[in-house]
């Protein structure tokens, strides 16, 4: 697996000058992914922040073949491209190795694109699907998604006296993908770039469908200072809100175990979308979030132990 110095020396495949916000970690995730994947990669992206800021007509920031798909069908589009490639290889018309990566935000993955994603994984296409999870529909006004954390104030779950933000915990998308029994599933974040790169490389090396869920903080929607994006991403891991792990052919490996788990309140307190949770009448929600984090973290560690025996 390449080191960070080696990656930094590779040609940039995500051009500068795109329209992303300063401090946008979804774009950092794209850059890190493409540096790992290399130029022989076909990328597809659902409508969303990444697509909008990188493909403003007549320009593109992608230095790879790129297909813009509708909100719901990034996985279907890339699975079709991968199927065509396999046919061309059988015919002897293509002889080089090509990677196929579909991208989608949490709106286009947890919700609108879940059917296409599930179908592509079930059919067994040799492709990687990456969800850049910024925990809301950021491109269209910061509406809640299936990936939005409990208690979050969004434009469709505003925090008020009656309803203190989103009522539900996020959909367990990574667990849903594990249940598909595909060769490789992982969670990561640009806050730990070597971990992200290693997982992308492994996902592209393993034969068959792979899925990676990348937590990608959004300074605009999460309401924190733009220069703190990396810190926010790393703290999500060290609170165990976003454990980074991989499941390779059914074997679970947690790739970062904090020496001391940071209380979730530390992650919540610097984000404007959670400010209302620190009012006395809402503090019980922080306790509920902490309980769920603790439950899942302990379960994950037990599953890791069992899968390695």
Short description:
With 309 residues, this protein is of the alpha/beta class.
Neighbour order of strands in the largest sheet? 2-1-3-4-6-5-7-8
**Overall body shape:** globular
CATH architectural group: 3-Layer(aba) Sandwich
Number of domains: 1
- How many β-strands, per DSSP? 8
The class by helix and strand makeup works out as alpha/beta
At the first level of CATH, the class is Alpha Beta
Radius of gyration: 19 Å
Helix content: 25-40%
- Annotated CATH topology: Rossmann fold
Strand content bin: 5-15%
Summarize the helix and strand pattern as letters.
HHEHEHEHHEHEHEHHEEHH
Mean pLDDT value: 97
The first-to-last residue Cα distance is: 26 Å
The helix count comes to 12
**CATH homologous superfamily classification:** Thiamin diphosphate (ThDP)-binding fold, Pyr/PP domains
Sheet of most strands:
8 strands, mixed
Give the low-pLDDT segments.
none
Structural summary, described in words:
The structure is a single chain. This protein is an alpha/beta fold. The protein is built from twelve helices and eight strands. The protein has helices spanning 4-8, 25-37, 49-54, 74-90, 106-111, 114-123, 173-178, 193-205, 219-222, 229-238, 264-268, 283-307; strands at 41-46, 66-69, 99-105, 128-133, 184-188, 210-215, 245-248, 251-254. The radius of gyration is 19 Å and the shape is globular. It starts with a helix and ends with a helix. The model has no long low-confidence stretch (mean pLDDT 97).
SSE diagram, text form:
Layout: H1 4-8, H2 25-37, E1 41-46, H3 49-54, E2 66-69, H4 74-90, E3 99-105, H5 106-111, H6 114-123, E4 128-133, H7 173-178, E5 184-188, H8 193-205, E6 210-215, H9 219-222, H10 229-238, E7 245-248, E8 251-254, H11 264-268, H12 283-307
Parallel strand pairs: 1-2, 1-3, 3-4, 4-6, 5-6
Antiparallel strand pairs: 5-7, 7-8
Helix pairs in contact: 2-8, 4-6
């Amino acid at each position: 697996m390449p080191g960070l110095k080696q990656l930094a020396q590779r040609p940039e495949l995500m051009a500068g000058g795109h329209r992303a916000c300063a401090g946008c970690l979804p774009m950092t995730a794209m850059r890190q992914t493409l540096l790992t994947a290399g130029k022989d990669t076909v990328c597809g992206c659902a409508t969303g922040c990444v697509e909008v800021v990188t493909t403003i007509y007549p320009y593109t920031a992608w230095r790879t073949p790129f297909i813009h798909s509708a909100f719901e069908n990034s996985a279907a589009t890339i699975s079709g491209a991968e199927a065509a490639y396999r046919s061309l290889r059988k015919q002897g018309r293509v002889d080089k190795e090509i990677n196929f990566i579909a991208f989608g935000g949490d709106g286009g993955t947890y919700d609108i694109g879940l059917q296409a994603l599930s179908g592509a994984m079930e059919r067994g296409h040799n492709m990687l699907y990456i969800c850049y999870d910024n925990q809301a529909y950021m491109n269209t006004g910061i509406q809640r998604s299936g990936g939005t954390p409990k208690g979050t104030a969004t434009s469709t779950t505003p925090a008020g006296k009656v309803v203190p933000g989103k009522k539900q915990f996020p959909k367990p998308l990574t667990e849903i993908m594990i249940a598909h029994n595909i060769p490789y599933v992982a969670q990561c974040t640009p806050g730990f770039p070597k971990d992200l790169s290693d997982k992308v490389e492994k996902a592209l090396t393993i034969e068959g469908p792979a899925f990676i869920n990348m937590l990608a903080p959004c300074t605009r929607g999460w309401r924190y200072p733009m220069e703190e994006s990396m810190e926010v991403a790393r703290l999500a891991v060290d609170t165990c809100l976003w454990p980074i792990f991989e499941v390779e052919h059914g074997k679970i490996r947690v790739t970062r175990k904090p020496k001391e788990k940071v209380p979730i309140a530390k992650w919540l307190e610097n984000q404007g979308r959670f400010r209302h949770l620190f009012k006395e009448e809402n503090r019980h929600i922080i306790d509920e979030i902490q309980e769920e984090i603790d439950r899942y973290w302990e379960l994950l560690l037990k599953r890791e132990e069992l899968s390695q025996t």
